[in-house]
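Q: Could you fold this chain for me?
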Amino acid sequence: MLASLHAPQSDGGLIAAGYAMFFGGLLMMGARLGDRYGHRRTILVSLAVFAAGSAVAATSSSVVALTAGRCLQGAAAAVSVPSALRLLTTITAEGAARRQAIAAWSAAGAAAGATGFVAGGIITELANWRLVFWAFIPGAAVLGAVIAATVHPYGDSEPVRSLNLAASAALTGAVMALVVGCTVITQSAWAAVGAAALGLCAVLTVAFVLIDRNAAAPLLPRQLVGRPTLRQGALGGFLNTSTTSSAVTLVTLYLRNTRHRTPLEAAATLLPLSLAAIAGSWLSATGLTVIAAGDTALIASAGSGWGVPLCAAACGVGIGLSSVAATAWGPTSVHAGVVAHPASSTPPPR
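A: Sure. Below is the predicted structure, expressed as structure tokens.
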């Protein structure tokens, strides 16, 4: 992408950080929007925004335009993910059916995340990177049509809740400042800006805690934060993502820039990650240990021809294992700080 836009390698961090900044920053706000305006409606709108962001990225002629498209995609994903999970837990009965649905949700996410590295390389090699973004548009349209046809709009009739805009703005700003700070602080010309952003993150985090604690409709009510299952699930999800996504991204850059592999060759090298993630999703929960072993071995064997795919396979198994377990740890009947009504009391899906 950078080569076709005649941009330096240093701009790659901006493109990657744009999506992460808006996705992480708006995730809590997206959950509250779903509670306020209905989860079905929120997903449909977010799919339209995601398609628009994909069109901007696909037609971009500069890094700025490409980053703007990725930011739109990140914002749309942040709004849709909480509502999608909420609908999933609403239309399934509590117990075995819901646990199976959560496991399938987690497995699909792990498999999709791991497969993206391979699919992106294949498409880039055989066609063009812009085709990746163009493909999102009909995909979003089909998904929106399926949701509109099969999901009953009962989520849109939930009681109206306060958006708690002050706390949402503080939390969103804190996450965005954290992402920007960590992205630019390693560049000598931007080190001061990165340090200032991290300092701003600390200030906004404190402000969020104070504002949310005194809000009538807090984003993180004390009784919710106090749940051990929520803390364990959040920690598991954090460790799972931070130890896999970052490592595989670095490996991708290493294969392309240092080993001078073509996109197709890099995709083939990471194919074991995708296959193992799918297989690992159906196994038991020892994923973080497997990921740790894979990351450790990757450091020592990165120069070996077989080292990267073998370690990638180990990490893929770990992703599949730990993502299912981490999601299952978290509470599935609580949202927006209140206990949800039992699934049996809601209208069935169409």
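A (continued): The first strand starts at residue 334 and ends at 335.
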